[in-house]
Amino acid sequence: MPPRWKFTPSEAVPAGATFDPQNLKGKNVIVTGGASGIGEFVVRGFVEVGAFVTFGDVDLARGEALAKELGAVFVKCDVLKWEEQLELFKKTLERGGVDVVVANAGLDGEDTILKRQPITPSNDPTEPNLRILRINLIGVAYTARLANFYFSRTPKSDHSLIITASLSSYIDHPFSPEYNASKWGVRGLMRSLRSTTGVSGMRVGVVAPWYVPF
Ligand SMILES: NC(=O)c1ccc[n+]([C@@H]2O[C@H](COP(=O)([O-])OP(=O)(O)OC[C@H]3O[C@@H](n4cnc5c(N)ncnc54)[C@H](O)[C@@H]3O)[C@@H](O)[C@H]2O)c1
Predict the structure, then answer these.
(1) Domain count along the chain
(2) Which CATH number fits the domain that encloses residue 100?
(3) Over the stretch 160-174, which tens digit does the pLDDT of each residue have?
(4) Which positions are tagged coiled coil (predicted)?
(5) Is pLDDT at 67 greater than 70 in this prediction?
(6) Are 52 and 29 in contact (CB under 8 A)?
(7) Residue to mutate, 64, 132, 164, ligand 1, most ligand atoms under 8 Å from C-beta
């Protein structure tokens, strides 16, 4: 029996590759963690080429100010809260559809797997909150599920899910097991999802920066 779809993964696209920004004009784009850093640049970039951007973040002050400056739409959204991500997607659908989703929200910082604590003969280890791992991996998994669902509500579009990964998705990142695992995790998510593009119609890719100072 012939396979139901043919899977041909594309090669990595060189960072300097050119594209036609006209293709993005009028597209409805969602960005998570769009109020600052890389996400803010992504929001600004899409607005500049004429896309309609709806972005979420936990930083209300920065999000609202950026939305006002650019004429974009800001939605309060913690990626770990399903209802808030759902609202972000619903708000975007109201604007005409969902064409491109950038799962960017992420966190670095003190790792709770390796977190030091005083060791006595009788104490127990403290429970790690695993916030970095959860935001960077579970938050992206929520975004991927919502993207897959809402893309199907937007027929006749070249649906694209772009995940902000990291060089830590490819290498050993000492002292940061939560971050390292989360970034390998989102790369794994991409590798599984891309192989079903033929069925879902959702293109999936990662962008893997190393150190980007702000
Ligand atoms: N800056 C770098 O050098 C670098 C390198 C590789 C990968 N990255 C990745 O790029 C992405 C953006 O990082 P950045 O450096 O721009 O960081 P940043 O801290 O400047 O921006 C992250 C944004 O995400 C928001 N955010 C944090 N937790 C959130 C949550 N639970 N829900 C929604 N929004 C939340 C923050 O408020 C902030 O606006 C992350 O996924 C990060 O891991 C960054």
Answers:
(1) 1
(2) 3.40.50.720
(3) 999 999 999 999 999
(4) none
(5) yes
(6) yes
(7) 164
Say if 186 falls within a structural domain.
yes
Does residue 14 fall inside a structural domain?
A: no
pLDDT digits (tens, 9 = 90+) for 157-212: 889 999 999 999 999 999 999 999 999 999 999 999 998 888 888 999 999 999 88
Q: Is the CB of 209 under 6 A from ligand 1?
A: yes
What does the alpha-carbon distance between residue 98 and residue 160 come to, in Å, rounded to a whole number?
9
Phi, psi of 204 (to 5 degrees): -135, 135
In a domain, 13, yes or no: no
179 catalytic per annotation? yes
Q: Is 207 in the pocket of ligand 1 (CB under 6 A)?
A: no
β-strands 28-32, 52-57: how paired? parallel
